[in-house]
C-alpha cells in the first residue's frame, strides 16, 4: 500500500526477506514511531538486520508485537506487556495475567520455537492478531483500525482510515473496513455494560472526520439532481448518512445534508425549498421510523406547473425493517443507496429492493 509517503525502513530490502517497519505498523494498527519506540525501550525489535540500517521483521518478530498490542489493549503498562511478550520460556516470575493470557503465552511459545509446525504458528498468528472484538473473517485493515480504536490512538486511527479510503474508495472502505469495525465495537459495548462507550464515540468521531477529509467538494447544484439527507425526528445516528453524502460527492452528485433529528416541519420546508430528486431518511430504530412521514414526503411536488415532480424517498437504516411500502425503496447497503440516488437523479428506473 503506497500512499505517496514511504517509511525510511521500507526500502533497501528484498520483499521476500520479511516485512518493513512501515508494513508491520500498518498490520498492527500503530504508528511506525510506536514500533521503533518499543524496539528502543523494550527490545522488541527484529532478530536480524538486513542491508545496513534497514530492518526486516519475521513472523516471529511480528507475533511478539501482536502479543504486545493485545496485552496493552487490556490495560497493562507497556513495560509489563513487553516483559510478557519477550518471555518465551515463561520464567519471568509471577505476573498479573489471566488464564487467557497464559494460554496465549503457551501458544506464542509454540510458534516461537524454530521449526515449529506451521499449524501452531498459524494458530498463534490468528489468536494474537485478535482484538477481543469478535471481528471474524474481515479485511486485515479492520483489525488495525480496531486496535487503534481500543488504544484510543488518534494518530494511528486517522492514518489507517485515510489509507483505507484512498486505497479502496469511500464505498468499499465503509462497507468492508469501517462498518465491520463499528459493529464489532458496538457488540463489545453491549456485552460489557458501560465499558468501551468511549471507544465507540472515539471511533465514530474519527470516522466522521475521515469521511469529510477524503470526500471531494460538494458538486454544484444541477436542476433535478439534488439529494436531501436527514435523520427522522428523534433519530441522532448521523454517521451512515455522512458516508452516503461523501459517496455521492465522490460520484459528482449534489447533496444537502441536514444531520440528526430534523423536525417534520423543517424537513418539509427543506424539500419544498430545494426540489430534490431523492430524499434519504435514516432511522436506526423502529421507534423512530415513521412510514406516514416517508409517504408524506414522497407526495410533495415541486417544479413549474405542468412539469411538477415528486422526490424518490429512500428509507435508510435498520429502523425501517417491516415498515416499508410500495414506492419507498429500502436500499440494502451504501452501494445500493448510491445507485438508487444516481438513478433518481438521471430519471432512470431502479430495480426494486427486497421489501419495497
From TrEMBL:
InterPro entries: Cbl-bd_cap, Cobalamin-bd, Cobalamin-bd_sf, DNA-bd_dom_put_sf, MerR-type_HTH_dom, MerR_fam, Meth_synthase_dom
Segments of this protein annotated with the region Disordered: 1-32, 87-124
SUPFAM superfamilies in the cross-refs: Cobalamin (vitamin B12)-binding domain, Putative DNA-binding domain
Name of a matching Pfam family: MerR_1
B12-binding domain boundaries: 224-352
Domain HTH merR-type: 18-87
Source superkingdom: Bacteria
Keyword annotations: DNA-binding
Low complexity biased stretches: 110-122
Classification via PANTHER family: MERR FAMILY REGULATORY PROTEIN (PTHR30204:SF97), REDOX-CYCLING DRUG-SENSING TRANSCRIPTIONAL ACTIVATOR SOXR (PTHR30204)
Protein name as catalogued: MerR family transcriptional regulator
Naturally occurring in which organism (per UniProt): Streptomyces rochei (Streptomyces parvullus)
Lineage: Bacteria, Bacillati, Actinomycetota, Actinomycetes, Kitasatosporales
Amino acid at each position: 500500500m503506497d500512499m505517496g509517503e514511504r517509511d525510511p525502513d521500507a526500502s533497501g530490502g528484498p520483499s521476500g526477506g520479511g516485512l518493513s517497519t512501515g508494513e508491520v505498523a500498518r498490520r498492527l494498527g500503530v504508528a511506525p514511531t510506536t514500533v521503533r519506540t518499543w524496539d528502543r525501550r523494550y527490545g522488541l525489535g527484529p532478530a536480524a538486520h538486513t542491508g545496513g540500517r534497514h530492518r526486516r521483521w519475521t513472523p516471529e518478530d511480528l507475533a511478539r508485537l501482536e502479543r504486545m498490542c493485545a496485552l496493552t489493549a487490556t490495560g497493562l503498562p507497556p513495560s509489563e506487556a513487553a516483559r510478557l511478550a519477550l518471555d518465551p520460556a515463561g520464567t519471568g516470575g509471577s505476573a498479573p495475567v489471566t488464564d487467557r493470557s497464559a494460554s496465549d503465552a503457551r501458544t506464542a511459545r509454540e510458534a516461537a520455537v524454530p521449526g515449529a509446525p506451521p499449524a501452531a504458528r498459524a494458530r498463534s498468528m490468528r489468536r494474537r492478531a485478535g482484538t477481543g472484538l469478535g471481528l471474524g473473517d474481515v479485511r486485515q485493515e479492520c483489525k488495525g483500525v480496531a486496535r487503534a480504536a481500543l488504544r484510543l490512538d488518534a494518530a494511528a486511527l486517522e492514518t489507517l482510515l485515510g489509507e483505507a479510503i484512498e486505497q479502496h474508495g469511500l464505498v468499499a472502505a465503509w462497507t468492508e473496513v469501517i462498518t465491520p469495525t463499528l459493529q464489532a465495537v458496538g457488540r463489545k459495548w453491549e456485552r460489557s455494560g458501560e465499558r468501551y462507550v468511549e471507544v465507540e464515540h472515539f471511533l465514530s468521531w474519527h470516522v466522521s472526520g475521515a469521511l469529510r477529509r477524503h470526500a471531494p467538494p460538494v458538486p454544484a447544484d444541477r436542476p433535478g439532481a439534488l439529494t436531501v439527507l436527514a435523520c427522522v425526528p428523534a433519530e441522532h445516528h448521523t454517521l451512515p448518512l455522512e458516508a452516503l453524502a461523501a459517496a455521492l460527492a465522490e460520484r459528482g452528485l449534489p447533496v444537502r445534508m441536514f444531520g440528526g433529528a430534523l423536525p417534520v416541519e423543517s424537513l418539509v420546508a427543506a424539500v419544498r425549498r430545494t426540489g430534490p430528486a431523492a430524499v434519504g431518511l435514516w432511522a436506526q430504530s423502529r421507534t423512530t421510523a415513521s412510514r406516514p412521514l416517508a409517504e408524506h414526503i414522497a407526495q410533495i411536488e415541486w417544479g413549474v406547473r405542468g412539469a411538477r415532480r415528486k422526490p424518490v424517498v429512500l428509507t435508510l437504516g435498520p429502523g425501517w425493517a417491516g415498515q416499508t411500502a410500495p414506492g419507498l425503496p429500502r436500499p440494502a447497503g451504501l452501494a445500493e443507496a448510491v445507485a438508487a440516488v444516481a438513478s433518481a437523479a438521471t430519471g432512470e428506473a431502479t430495480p426494486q429492493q427486497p421489501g419495497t
